[in-house]
């Protein structure tokens, strides 16, 4: 069937899009279709289904695409090419600020979840590490995880999961996060650094490593404890905490046996406890602290460690009895894995 020829409008020549028109000039459906490399019918479908249509009206009820409209459509087009479902791509494009959709930072790589997800889909490990490392060095590892990695993981979870052999975007992204965590924690902490033990279920592993990295950069000695299997005794986790002798135990989410672990650690006075996230154990006890976000956890744990260090220093002064709960000057007895270490 012969396609219907678009009528001639300002900004077009002989019914064909004028691609030399000014960048800020409103464009017709045909002009935008030519710019994006899609059919005009596709643009009309995106308008009808997702509301990504032209926002400017001119005389004669003709609708025109503004630069902001085109920016959203460019994002929609890029996301669908990367494998994101059209409905999700449209939602992201609609909610994004137009000015940020086409912004290219001076570093060369876009620092946004969409670009991170695209790099993971393409198995571009070097770009993933480069982007994450720059973001972590600029804003901190916790911010990089919360603002880039988590949204990128959500985008990947919503896409078509039919991957080619050897392509596992989520695994590639996870490996990049761990690699950056190792890069940022190459300098060992002081021998008398306060100790933090993190306990998290498998789904929160990357969050645990990111939080541990953030805490390591402020001088803490951090280890991540793998949770027990459901059939194993919860006592083993308590024994692991006692062996590690941490100043603070951090529980992320609702890992296996987390409730019993928090209650037993508190009852035996093994460490102060910080529960992180809305799904963390619903336990309210003195000395058990609760925060909702990783960023808040960094501040809360940092304050606890400062107080612990001050108590340890006071206990070493002449005439002040030594405290069993202070930070000793010997080597730490870590359990679990260091930040950034690969996990099973």
TrEMBL record:
UniProt domain HTH merR-type: residue ranges: 26-95
A Pfam family it matches: MerR_1
GO MF annotation terms: DNA binding; DNA-binding transcription factor activity
Cross-referenced SMART domains: HTH_MERR (SM00422)
Compositional bias per record (Low complexity), positions renumbered to this chain: 330-344
Region (Disordered), start-end ranges: 1-22, 310-344
Keywords annotated in UniProt: DNA-binding
Domain of life: Bacteria
InterPro entries: DNA-bd_dom_put_sf, MerR-type_HTH_dom, MerR_fam
Name used for this protein in its record: Transcriptional regulator, MerR family
Origin species: Beutenbergia cavernae (strain ATCC BAA-8 / DSM 12333 / CCUG 43141 / JCM 11478 / NBRC 16432 / NCIMB 13614 / HKI 0122)
């Amino acid at each position: 069937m012969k396609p219907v020829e678009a009528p001639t409008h300002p900004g077009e020549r002989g019914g064909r899009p004028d691609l030399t028109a000014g960048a800020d000039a409103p464009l017709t459906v045909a002009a935008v279709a030519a710019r994006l490399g899609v059919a005009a019918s596709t643009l009309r479908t995106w308008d009808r289904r997702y509301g990504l249509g032209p926002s400017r009206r001119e005389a004669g009820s003709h609708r025109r695409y503004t630069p902001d409209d085109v920016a959203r459509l460019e994002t929609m087009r890029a996301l669908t090419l990367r494998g994101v479902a059209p409905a999700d791509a449209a939602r992201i494009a609609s909610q994004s600020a137009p000015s940020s959709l086409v912004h290219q930072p001076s570093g060369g790589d876009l620092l946004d979840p969409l670009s991170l997800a695209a790099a993971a889909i393409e198995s571009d490990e070097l770009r993933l590490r480069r982007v994450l490392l720059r973001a972590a060095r600029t804003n901190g590892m916790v911010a990089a995880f919360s603002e880039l990695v988590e949204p990128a993981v959500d985008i990947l979870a919503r896409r078509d999961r039919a991957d080619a052999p050897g392509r596992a975007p989520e695994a590639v992204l996870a490996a990049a996060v761990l690699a950056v965590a190792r890069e940022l924690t190459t300098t060992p902490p002081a021998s008398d650094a306060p100790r933090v033990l993190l306990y998290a279920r498998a789904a929160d592993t990357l969050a645990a490593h990111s939080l541990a990295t953030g805490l390591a950069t402020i001088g803490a000695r951090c280890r991540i404890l793998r949770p027990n299997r459901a059939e194993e005794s919860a006592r083993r986790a308590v024994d692991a905490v006692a062996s590690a002798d941490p100043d603070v135990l951090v529980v992320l989410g609702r890992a296996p046996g987390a409730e019993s672990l928090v209650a037993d650690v508190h009852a035996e006075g093994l460490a102060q406890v910080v529960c992180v996230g809305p799904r963390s154990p619903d336990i309210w006890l003195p000395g058990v602290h609760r925060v909702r976000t990783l960023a808040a956890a960094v501040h809360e744990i940092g304050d606890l460690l400062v107080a612990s260090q001050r108590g340890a220093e006071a206990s070493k002064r002449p005439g002040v009895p030594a405290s069993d709960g202070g930070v000793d000057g010997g080597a730490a007895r870590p359990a679990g894995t260091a930040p950034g270490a690969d996990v099973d």
